[in-house]
């Protein structure tokens, strides 16, 4: 099922709301990304067990992207949802490891690896 958002494609798959992030999240688009995530979490919190942030289009994660994800995790938890990250790019996964965020946001290389 397609989830209507203004800025980010999303769909529900196996009780997970999968959100495709833009290639870069920076100060220019962060407000739109945050708004889209808030809407998705609010609208689908009762139906989805997890929010999956799909960073497949990204080769790296900016500090702004990490901030957006930390906020999304808090909102998702408030709705009873887990937050998982899909990050195929080694540099993106390394950023999560170096910052320690991998400990609170499980990071997977592919969507198929995300627990159902």
UniProtKB/TrEMBL annotation:
One term of GO molecular function: anti-sigma factor antagonist activity
UniProt cross-references to InterPro entries, sorted A to Z: STAS_dom, STAS_dom_sf
Domain STAS: 18-116
Designated name of the protein: STAS domain-containing protein
Organism annotation: Streptomyces albireticuli
